[in-house]
Each structure stands twice: as C-alpha cells, then as structure tokens.
Amino acid sequence: MAAQGEDGSGLTHVLRRRHMTLIAIGGSVGAGLFIGSGAVIQTAGPAAVVSYALAGALVFLTLRALGEMVVSVPAGGSFSDYARLAFGPRGGFTIGWVYWWMYAVLVAAESVAGATIVGQWVEVPGWALALVVLLSMTVANLISVRVFAETESFFSLVKVATIVAFLVVGGLYALGLWSGSGGSSVGNLWELGGFAPQGWVAVLGATVVVLFAFGGVEIITIAAGESAEPERGVASAITNVLWRIGLFYVASILVVVMVVPWDSARLDRSPFVVVMETVGVPGAALIMEIVVLVAVLSVLNAAMYTSSRMLFMLTRQGDAPRVLKGTNRRGVPVWAILLGTVVGYAAVVADYLFPGRVFGFLVASIGAILLVLFLVICASQLVVGARVRRRAPERLTLRMWAFPYLTWVTLLGLVAIFVAMAMLPEHRQALWSSVGAVVVALLIYEVRRRVGSEPSRLVLGVGGRATPEELDAIAGPGSAVVVGEEGGGHSPGAG
Questions:
Q1: Mean pLDDT of 186-210
Q2: 179 SS3 class
Q3: pLDDT (tens digit per residue) in 286-342
Q4: pLDDT top residue among 3 and 267
Q5: Is residue 165 part of a domain?
Q6: Which tops the pLDDT comparison, 421 or 48?
Q7: Which domain holds residue 256?
Q8: In 392-482, which residue ranges form alpha helices assigned H by DSSP?
Q9: Mean pLDDT value across residues 65-87
Q10: Each residue of 331-362: b (16+ CB within 10 Å) or e?
Q11: Within a domain: residue 191?
Q12: DSSP annotation of 454
C-alpha cells in the first residue's frame, strides 16, 4: 500500500519486479515447510502430497482473485480497501485491524522462534536472544523500504537455493542414481500401507494444517503499492505463485515421502534434515538449522513490514490514531513500525517469566485469522468483480478465471476448512481464538463509529493511478456512477 506522509508524498517506489518476485517466494516458504511438514506426513502418509496440492490450489485461486482486484481497482489499502468497497467501512476496519493483529503477533512468535534456534548454539537466555532478534529486524525496517526489500530478497534466495539443492540431491537418491543409495526408494509411496494409509479423511484433516503454511503470499499485494511498476509486478508474482507452490511444496514433500518411510519416528524432526542425513550429506543438521533460522528471520522481516503498512493505511482512513501517520524523510512509517513490535516486546517479557510456553500460545491465538482473511478476499471479489465487469470491464487485464463460479468454488473450499477446524478438537482453540479477535475488532468499530469521526466508505487512492472517487465509481456501492471511455469515473457521493 502506498503510504503517504503528512506532506502527501508517497513512500519511495524502490521495489522492482525482482524484489516482487522474491518477496512472493519469501512469503510462501517459511519454517512451516522446513519443520512442520513432518507432522503432516505422519498424519496423511505419502498422500500428504495431495494435502499440499489441495491447500496450494485454494491459496493460489484466492491470490488470483485478489490479484484481479489489485490490478483493476488499484486501491492503496489492498484487501482491507476491497472489503471496504464490498461491505462498507465496518468490513474495511475489521479486516484491517485483524490482519494487523495477526502480523503483530507473528512478529512476536518469530522472534521467540529465532531465539530458540540461536539458543542451540550459544548459552544465552532465550528472552535476551529474542530481544536481539527483534531489535535487529526493527532497525532493518526503520532504515528504508530498500533495506527491507534487499534483506527479504537475500533471505528468499537462501531458501530457494536450499530447496533446489534438496530436490536435486533427494530426487537422485530416491531414483537410485545417487552414489551409495542402494537402489530406488520410490516404493515408499505405496509399500507401507498404501498411498493413503490413514484414509482420505486424514488427508483432508491434514489440509487444514497445510493451509496455514502458505500464509504470507498475500504480502506481495501490499508491497505492490511501493513498487515502481505495481500492476506488472503483482501480475507476474501472482502468475508465478502456482509453479512455486508446485516446486517448493508439493515436489519437496514428494521427495521426502520417497526417501523416508512416512511412519518413521525421525520425521518428528525436520524432514529436510532427515532426508539429507539419509543421503549422507555431512553437516546436514547444522546446515538446515541455519536455513530454518533464515526462514524465521524472513517471516519476521516480512511480518514487521506488513503490520506497519496495514496500520499506516488505517491511520489514513481515520481508523487508527493520527500520531501513527508520520513518516521519516525516507518515507518509512516509523511509529507504525514501532507499534507493530509492541507485542514482540511483551513476548520477550513473557518468555522471561514463562520460558518455553510463549511460542505455542502466540501461534494458537492467530491460528485461523489467515483463513478469515482468505474468506473475506473471495467474498469481496465476488462483489467487486461483478461491479467492475458491469461498469469498467476494460480494466480487467488480469482476470479471475470462470468468474464467479471458480470464486464460489474457492470460497466453499475455505468454508469446508473452517468447518473442519470446528470439528477437529486439536484445531478448535485456534479457530475460536481467531473468531474472538474478529468479534473484538467489530466491537471496537462500533465504539469508533460512535465517538470518532464519520467512517469513510471511500477507499485509498494511489497517486497517479486512481482517486478515491474513481475507485468508488468503478467498484463501490454508489448508485450514481459515470464511467468514462478510459475506465475512469466519479460518483457524486451516492450510497
């Protein structure tokens, strides 16, 4: 989202297509793949590949729906503004603050996780290491948008290089082409109780867990506002997400279940470490610990950036205190970044008081917010997409396929995940904690509506590309709409 300072100047457009591509990769590859995939494999067996493919398809289609809105309706507040266009100020306020909360808590969780990894190498209290990790990433984000982009690009390159090397080495071993492999191990896919030894219900249950491993891919649409070429950058990044999901997730899990028996107790550790040890790569454990640390820092870096930009957008809409609106001379929203770290510092204190208990609590408290976000994105696209097709179809240079039917299929798939979480005891706490966050945001909106200024139904325009009035005419609820030949338009404030 293109944040603006008090003087109206936008944040420097320094993100290039190279950065956009790497940010998309960084957002979709985290510690959940390197560590959490072991539990998924033990639940679903070799059919964990299907769990990842199903979740990946839902995420990709959701992102495609979001991408259509980003390109055709270039609003400065990303999906919060699309919820505002579709469902009014209440929708924009609620999803904006809930999304901010998710990433503020994620900043805290990843700081504690990073400290846990570093704590394996140095004998320093976990709370002190968490503080160092948090301060380091805060400084990187405060310097400039360019530092964020370059840092995230470096982290992403490390992760991509690791996965490519893993696929090559593990794939050769599974096919019996690696020195000392002792023959093909592809039979692990079906020889230990079948492809889905725990049944297909277990495969669908594992999909619930897998969905949250993809959290972060939506960050590219927020970074787009600070890109030098936002439409091309977003379109390219979204289009390429499909093959990234296939390569980095589905192919990686396929290699794991071919090399290591799905019921191996060793999968309690990182499956990537287990595969490399099986192949005989020296120092595999240390290498993967370093890569997992990089993945954690990458998520922390992106979370801090995302929470600050969403909060900055809320200040521009009058939905957050104006004091958070200020930027420094490099266009960085300093106060918004610092507020996004408050939960992190609280987590440092909590880790000091209750060592080893903080990370699980933090993760559980935001467990289903991503699902709520995806549901809102699809619901918004059904409304906004229909309006754009009716009022300014020439703007649809990036379309959601088979609209509205495929959007409905995606929405129903996400609802099925929601229902599954409510039915599975191990996921209920995360679900109801996240629903509670939504309820709190709705209640706060009612207070804001009664004691604050009148909430605006207009969304944030993007300098040089669209004004709030034009966006309202194209995709808003206004009853009197005039759309010009070039797709511009205005609304005289109807609705």
A1: 90
A2: coil
A3: 888 888 888 888 888 888 888 888 888 888 888 888 888 777 777 788 888 888 888
A4: 267
A5: yes
A6: 48
A7: 17-476
A8: 405-423, 425-451, 468-475
A9: 87
A10: bbbebbbebbbebbbebbebbeeeeeebbebb
A11: yes
A12: P
Residue 13 in tokens: 């457009």
Helix or strand run (H / E) with residue 236: helix 230-244
State how far the Cα of 293 lies from the Cα of 35, in Å rounded to an integer.
11
Task: With respect to residue 7, please indicate whether it lies within any of the assigned structural domains.
Answer: no
Q: What is the DSSP string of 291-341?
A: HHHHHHHHHHHHHHHHHHHHHHHHHHTTSS-GGGG---TTS--HHHHHHHT
CATH number of the domain that 435 lies in? 1.20.1740.10
User: Is 12 within a domain?
Assistant: no
Residue 212, token pair as written in the block: 């949250």
Give 272's DSSP letter: H
State yes or no: cis peptide before 404, omega within 30 of 0.
yes
pTM of the complete model: 0.85
Confidence label for 269 from pLDDT (cuts 50, 70 and 90): confident
Q: Are 82 and 477 in contact (CB under 8 A)?
A: no
3-state helix, strand, coil split of the chain in percent (to 5) is 70, 0, 25
Tokens standing for 279?
């192949």
CB 324 within 8 A of CB 336: yes
Hey, what amino acid is at 446?
A: E
What is the number of domains present in the chain?
Answer: 1
Please state the length of the chain.
495
